[in-house]
Amino acid sequence: DRALALTDAAAAGELLVGASVKALLVEAGGVRFGPARELPGGTAWRVEVGPPPVRVESLVGRDEALAEARAVVDSARKGEGGARLFVGPTGVGRSRFLEAVEDLAANATPLRVVHAWGGDPRSAGALGLVRTVFVALSRAAMGTDVSGPPLSGLGLSEAEAQALWRRLARGAPMGGHLPAGDGAVVEALRRVAQPSGLLLLVDDVHRVDGASLELLAGVLATKDTRVALVGTGDVDAVPTALASLPVTVLEGLSSSELNALLTASLGTSLSPSLERAVGDRVRGNPAHALALVRLLVAVGVLQRTEEGFQANGPLSAASLPQDLGQVLGARLELLPSASLRFLQRAAVEGSLFSAELVRASLPSAEGAEVLDDAEWVVPVPRQPGSFRFTREEARQVLRERLSPMQLRNAHEELAETLEREAFASEPAREVRVADHLLGADAPGAQAACERAGDGFAARGEWRAAVEFYRWALGRAPGATAAVVRWQLGVLASAARCLTQVDPASVDGLVTPWLDRVSVMQTPGTWAEAARRLAIAELKLGRIADAEVRLSMAQGPASADPEVEALVLGELARVREAKGETTAAVELLARAFQRMGNRTARAPDFYWEHYLLLGRLQQRLGQLDRARVAFTRAAEQARSVASAVGQARALSQLAGLRVLAGEPAQALSELERALVLADQGGDAQEVARIHFNAGRLLVAGGRVPEARERLEQARERARVAGWREGEALAAQVLGTMEGRTPRR
């Protein structure tokens, strides 16, 4: 009868409830009511708003910080750049703050905005963040069309986009030759920021790769780039590269602000006594406050009433869990066991994870419904099927609840799942497999680390490669000659990569291993590791040390023809550095003789050594022999599909054409070399070719064409970071300007 009376009294589209139902809805939360109405049989209330979409938390008490962020957004919209970091301790709401800044920027049209996260696996590796930014801009420009080549829609020519993608995707062209310099990346950023401006919103800047941070710092310090940054990060881990930027510290909230946050997020306020108790315990940390109140409601200590949350008994700060980790641990205990297992497996996978990967790694598909609970995980925008832990603290608590055996098993099962064909397209797959196998202490961990190191080395990410090679090596030589031979091969690879970025540290890496391994056990690989150390010493200008090292390696190297040939080649470089050109040529002849007709394991062996031989013979005035050597270098480079090798050989042949008085043929050779150098991504060779072509055109009186080529040489040298080439091109251009008749 009561229900019929309420139905009859309600207008169309109106829902009326009595006191009992109202009490239940109040306790559930998320419902507002209209004024009380007296009806036959009792009082009724109109339900005005149903449960709103759940949001993890509202933003409260950040007015001043938002004003500072708004100033950066306004500056970016005007094309004036700008930057500010907002840092704070764990749980203070940095990510939520950045979401609010994104909402502000959404109204700042036509400003381009990219929101990125430092922990995103897609941003792994050198220049990972910058790569993510360009991909996001490209996708925004192309809309739903993802069929085009990488970096389409950015206003770059096809060649420029391809060169930029090579730099961002691989870090360096295959073979380890000089990559396109970061100047090209900076220039591309400047261009995509024109004319409307570009605002980068970067969460967790302390987790961004160093190369991206250094490049970004340079961009922000340059006038007229129209690039701006709002970043958030850990108060105790501000990256050195961004240390000069203005910083705002996001402090904890006051008790009243915490109450306002809880009211906005949970739909009910705290009573004054509860506000004091919670405020004293959480010390202004909003994440701690939200998690604590949710816990107290879940265990029945707090109850929703019309007046707000009320405790069922006396409650003091001392009786509450001490820190956020304890609160989250208690909350996790209330989850169904299947949901807890799912979250624990996801926590082992990473801060960001594929739901399908986690599901496939578990024996049962149960528990995935926890993905709908925004208290623990949230979907990653524009990455269907990917989720991110709402709080990193929750992920740490989940991992800590696993026993060592459970943790190892989780790592191993995730590694096995990742290696399935269905997950072949997962980002950074080889690296993640290696990480999981290391975590599992599995037998295949060392081989997986070597594969990950090889992947990083191929992309020119030298430091990351060295790190994985170190893990592959282990701490001591293996028990058998086969294992030691493999370890010394990994050591040589690590030394090669470390020489690229820190040659002074190669000695500390290689020498302890050479001292602990018997040279007679694996003479060839021992000599190769020693040769790699000698190359680093040569790079440091320690010519005498390198010569002694190589002379010691000659005997063991004789066990492997190719290693001995390589040692002889390095000795030739030592003699070249000492000015002993004839002796260097003789050593190279011995190196070729030692190789005989063998196919080299190192694909660049022949063309690199023929190039060196040709340069030495040219220095001795043996031009015909030099031409033969350069021609063979070009043929060998073509046989191993090395565009870089072909370009360098053709450039040398063009030089001989000039000496022979054949400038037209020389220009033709240079044009062919230019195409190949561009194809191989050898930016310094591209600049050198433009410079040499410009000088030839000057000599031929073709001044306008010469000026254009020299300007290209100067710009390409700047992009490649080749300061000497940039200065030479500028010098010739300055001389040309001085000769130009004034009108």
UniProtKB/TrEMBL annotation:
<dbReference type="GO" id="GO:0005737">
    <property type="term" value="C:cytoplasm"/>
</dbReference>
<keyword id="KW-0808">Transferase</keyword>
<dbReference type="Pfam" id="PF13424">
    <property type="entry name" value="TPR_12"/>
</dbReference>
<dbReference type="GO" id="GO:0004674">
    <property type="term" value="F:protein serine/threonine kinase activity"/>
</dbReference>
<protein>
    <submittedName>
        <fullName>Serine/threonine protein kinase</fullName>
    </submittedName>
</protein>
<dbReference type="InterPro" id="IPR041664">
    <property type="entry name" value="AAA_16"/>
</dbReference>
<keyword id="KW-0723">Serine/threonine-protein kinase</keyword>
<dbReference type="InterPro" id="IPR027417">
    <property type="entry name" value="P-loop_NTPase"/>
</dbReference>
<dbReference type="GO" id="GO:0004016">
    <property type="term" value="F:adenylate cyclase activity"/>
</dbReference>
<dbReference type="Pfam" id="PF13191">
    <property type="entry name" value="AAA_16"/>
</dbReference>
<keyword id="KW-0418">Kinase</keyword>
<keyword id="KW-0067">ATP-binding</keyword>
<keyword id="KW-0547">Nucleotide-binding</keyword>
<feature type="domain" description="Orc1-like AAA ATPase">
    <location>
        <begin position="59"/>
        <end position="225"/>
    </location>
</feature>
<dbReference type="InterPro" id="IPR019734">
    <property type="entry name" value="TPR_rpt"/>
</dbReference>
<dbReference type="InterPro" id="IPR011990">
    <property type="entry name" value="TPR-like_helical_dom_sf"/>
</dbReference>
<dbReference type="GO" id="GO:0005524">
    <property type="term" value="F:ATP binding"/>
</dbReference>
